[in-house]
Write a structure and sequence with these properties.
Blueprint lengths: L3 E7 L13 E6 L2 E7 L3 H7 L7 E5 L5 H4 L2 H10 L6 E6 L2 H12 L7 E6 L6 E4 L3 E7 L7 E7 L5 E2 L1 H6 L7 H5 L4 E2 L5 E2 L1 H4 E2 L6 E5 L17 E5 L7 H6 L5 H11 L3 E5 L9 H8 L5 E3 L5 E3 L1
Parallel strand pairs: 3-4, 4-5, 5-6, 14-15, 15-16, 16-17
Antiparallel strand pairs: 1-2, 1-18, 2-3, 7-8, 8-9, 9-14, 10-13, 11-12
Helix pairs in contact: 9-10
Length: 304
């Protein structure tokens, strides 16, 4: 099974602290590297995580609050200095398009690579990126401005060849792709060997959902049903539930409720308010509802 990893670069909220960096994550799946959000300081965090800058093929921005996008133009500039030639794809709410073009023209004139902007309609759940092995869909969220999360899903793969059976029946190498695609094998004596004897089931496709800043959404779980790993913001504890509603954020209990109702396998929480000296109070609250919850911290790696 190929790696599917989520690397945490930053999990703090808007107010800078010495404990947490602004929001950013890197998702590694099927030999591709994607970034979600690019808050201030993301480049330093990439260095700390020992992630090669030029491996990033696409950046997904959830919304246009500074703690989620102030690092973008700096990273784009650095990629130019590092000699990037491959196109960088940026997916973000449509409002970023004009702003990004102005920044590129002013700060990054003469790049040796193209920055291709994809405007996202944050109000719909739709495919925004697709290749031969990965699909990324937008997840409409409820924040003070246009905002969406992103769902990264593997496409189904073919069954695994049973090497012992292939060798036993002396099946030639040139025929093995046919078997992976469902064909039976007929021996020289005319015996038909069913495909089920020659293969093992494919690995189940894995999925990760990133739900950044959002007010609690009672129906959000319907879009997240069965996700392997869910990141959901948990800015406040329930003691500050009114503040959470006022600023269109969620409590740890609300994040855990979404995970429980969606029947996800694991929940990780982040975007912690600077008002809490101990993030453990948020973890305890979430685990009271959904036990398989973990805090995010800078440099954490979650494997699916």
């Amino acid at each position: 099974m190929q790696p599917f990893k989520v690397r945490i670069l930053g999990c703090g909220s808007a107010l800078p602290t010495l404990k947490h960096s602004a929001s950013s994550q890197v998702i590694e799946v099927r030999d591709k590297v994607f970034m979600v959000d690019c808050g201030e300081g993301t480049q330093v965090q990439l260095r700390r995580a020992r992630i090669h800058f030029n491996k990033i093929c696409a950046i997904f921005i959830t919304h246009l609050h500074g703690d989620h996008c102030f690092g973008l133009i700096g990273l784009i500039s650095t990629l130019g200095m590092l000699g990037r030639t491959a196109t960088l794809h940026v997916y973000a709410p449509q409002e970023l398009g004009g702003i990004l073009r102005q920044q590129l023209d002013f700060f990054c004139n003469g790049l040796d690579y193209e920055v291709y902007f994809h405007g996202i309609d944050t109000s719909i759940h739709d495919i925004v990126y697709e290749d031969n092995s990965v699909v990324v869909k937008s997840i409409p969220l409820n924040h003070r401005i246009a905002c969406c999360g992103y769902m990264f899903s593997e496409k189904p793969t073919l069954p695994h060849i049973r090497r012992d059976m292939i060798d036993f029946y002396n099946i030639p190498e040139c025929y093995r792709n046919n078997i992976k695609n469902g064909a039976d094998w007929t021996t020289k004596d005319g015996e038909v060997i069913p495909n089920s004897w020659l293969t093992k089931p494919a690995d189940p496709p894995r999925s990760y959902a990133y739900c950044s800043d959002t007010k609690y959404m009672p129906d959000l779980h319907k879009l997240l049903a069965g996700i392997d790993l869910l990141y959901h913001e948990a800015t406040y504890t329930s003691e500050d539930v009114k503040r959470a509603a006022l600023y269109y954020h969620s409590t740890a209990r609300q994040a855990a409720t979404v995970a429980l109702e969606a029947n996800v396998k694991r929940l990780i929480i982040g975007h912690f308010s600077a008002r809490y000296d101990d993030d453990g109070v948020l973890l305890e609250e979430a685990r009271n509802v959904f036990p398989n919850t973990a805090l995010t911290n800078e440099m954490d790696v979650f494997e699916l």
